[in-house]
């Protein structure tokens, strides 16, 4: 990945125009409609014929399986409400900017995913003694690192067998939209989005660690390009606020009237429950505690609210989540070569001015 420090590059613009974030005003909704949920696709969206498509489960298993969509849909089903966030969320705030999808803070969404628990499918296939990893292959192909490949990510057998991990054919009660993985995708709660493989057609159980590109090379926290780095997994805590008032076009600076403004937002962490959200209106010098509500489930964002007394003038609004493990958000980003997991606090410029007309 190369770096950029100035204006956006054509490569970044290409990615930004194909993939899209969730407009932050959609934080009003507990469940994000598919059209507003963020989308990230490395290669092209494949067109899949659901009548000939099959899910194969093989590798180090006692009973290799092939399932049609109909057969899958006949198995016992669950619905999980899951907040997904891209590991690159916050990348464009880094300097120099690693050149990839230039997310600011909008690579997030929460959906109700319905399908078959992965654990029950693995159970049917019966992993052999000594199974350690499970990989998930998408049907989409492209060139990365000079090699033509399918998008494929692995999990440990323990991560794959966790409750809540689902092989989903429905999003918000409807068949998956093409851009979210029709006809079938994996959804791994608590983990950054890259684990949730879309257009899934092959599950492979391994008796050694899976060293595919997306695990061994991409999605690692590296100090530099030559650093082997640490693998990324769970989402760091983050709180976002619904930008208050109205936006100025095109800067998106917010305009509000002085007085009482109710701020609302959502907060999540892949490491545990969010137990605290703090708000600052002076760029992070002083903080006050917001009220955190109940999330719609153990794998989804929690709502929060704060009564803000806004004085006339310019403010820099910030919010910060802390989870039950004590993990929180830094005021300054920590740079890494891939531009991953930057959970620095959100900063929004707000101008409070009484109406003059
Ligand atoms: N097959 C496949 N699965 C994929 C990807 C991809 O490019 N191909 N992108 C991953 C990444 S990086 C993210 S953040 C999530 C995004 O899921 P969404 O587009 O449904 O929000 O999908 C993941 N699953
Ligand atoms: Mo991602």
Number of helices: 5
Strand content: 35-45%
Rg over C-alpha atoms, rounded to the nearest angstrom: 21 Å
Tell me about the largest β-sheet.
6 strands, mixed
For CATH, the homologous superfamily of the largest domain is named as Oxidoreductase, molybdopterin-binding domain
Shape-level CATH architecture of the largest domain? Alpha-Beta Complex
Q: What is the count of distinct domains?
A: 2
Q: Report low-confidence residues grouped into runs of 5 or more.
A: none
Question: How would the blueprint of this fold be written?
Answer:
Layout: E1 3-4, H1 10-18, E2 55-59, E3 65-67, H2 69-73, E4 78-85, E5 97-98, E6 108-117, H3 118-125, E7 133-144, E8 147-156, H4 157-160, E9 166-171, E10 174-175, E11 185-187, E12 200-206, H5 213-216, E13 220-221, E14 230-231, E15 238-241, E16 246-247, E17 254-256, E18 259-268, E19 274-280, E20 288-289, E21 291-292, E22 302-310, E23 313-323, E24 346-352
Parallel strand pairs: 2-12, 17-24
Antiparallel strand pairs: 1-5, 2-3, 4-6, 6-9, 7-8, 7-12, 9-10, 9-11, 13-14, 15-18, 16-17, 18-22, 19-20, 19-23, 21-22, 23-24
Structure description:
The N and C termini lie far apart (about 50 Å). This protein has 2 domains: about 1-220, Sulfite Oxidase, Chain A, domain 2 (Alpha-Beta Complex), CATH 3.90.420; about 240-350, Immunoglobulin-like (Sandwich). Helix content is about 10%, strand content about 35%. The protein is globular. It has about 350 residues and is mainly beta. It has a 6-stranded mixed beta sheet with strand order 16-17-24-23-19-20, with no helix packed on it. The protein has a 5-stranded mixed beta sheet with strand order 3-2-12-7-8. Strands 4, 6, 9, 10 and 11 form a 5-stranded antiparallel beta sheet that branches. It has helices at about 10-20, 70-75, 120-125, 155-160, 215; strands at about 5, 55-60, 65, 80-85, 95-100, 110-115, 135-145, 145-155, 165-170, 175, 185, 200-205, 220, 230, 240, 245, 255, 260-270, 275-280, 290, 290, 300-310, 315-325, 345-350. The ligand Nc1nc2c(c(=O)[nH]1)N[C@H]1C(S)=C(S)[C@@H](COP(=O)(O)O)O[C@H]1N2 binds near residues 37, 38, 39, 40 and 194. Molybdenum atom binds near residues 40, 86, 88, 193 and 194.
């Amino acid at each position: 990945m190369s770096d950029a420090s100035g204006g956006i590059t054509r490569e970044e613009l290409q990615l930004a125009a194909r993939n899209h974030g969730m407009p932050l005003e959609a934080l009003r909704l507990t469940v994000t409609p598919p059209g507003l949920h963020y989308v990230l696709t490395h290669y092209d969206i494949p067109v899949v014929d659901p009548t000939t498509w099959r899910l194969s489960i093989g590798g180090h298993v006692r009973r290799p399986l092939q399932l049609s969509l109909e057969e899958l849909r006949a198995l016992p089903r669950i619905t999980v409400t899951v907040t997904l966030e891209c590991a690159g969320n916050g990348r464009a705030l880094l300097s120099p900017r690693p050149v990839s999808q230039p997310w600011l803070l909008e690579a997030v969404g929460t959906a109700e995913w319905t399908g078959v628990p992965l654990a029950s499918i693995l159970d049917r296939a019966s992993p052999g003694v000594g199974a350690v990893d499970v990989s998930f292959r998408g049907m989409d192909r492209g060139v990365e690192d000079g090699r033509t490949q399918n998008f494929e990510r692995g999990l440990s057998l323990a991560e794959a067998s966790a409750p809540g991990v689902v092989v989903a054919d429905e999003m918000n009660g409807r068949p998956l939209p093409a851009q979210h993985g029709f006809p079938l995708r994996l959804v791994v709660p608590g983990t950054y989005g890259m684990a949730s493989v879309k257009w899934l057609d092959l599950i492979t159980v391994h008796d050694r660690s899976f060293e595919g590109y997306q695990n061994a090379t991409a999605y690692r926290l590296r100090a530099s390009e030559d650093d082997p780095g640490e693998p990324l997994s769970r989402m760091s805590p983050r709180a976002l606020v619904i930008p208050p008032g109205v936006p100025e076009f095109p800067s998106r600076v917010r305009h509000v009237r002085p007085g009482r403004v109710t701020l609302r937002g959502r907060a999540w962490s892949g490491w545990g429950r969010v137990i605290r959200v703090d708000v600052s209106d002076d760029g992070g010098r002083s903080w006050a505690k917001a009220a955190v509500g109940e999330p719609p489930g153990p794998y989804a964002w929690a709502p929060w609210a704060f009564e803000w007394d806004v004085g006339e003038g310019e403010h820099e609004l910030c919010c910060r989540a802390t989870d039950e493990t004590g993990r929180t958000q830094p005021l300054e980003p920590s740079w890494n070569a891939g531009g991953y997991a930057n959970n620095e606090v959100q900063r929004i410029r707000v101008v409070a001015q009484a109406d003059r007309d």
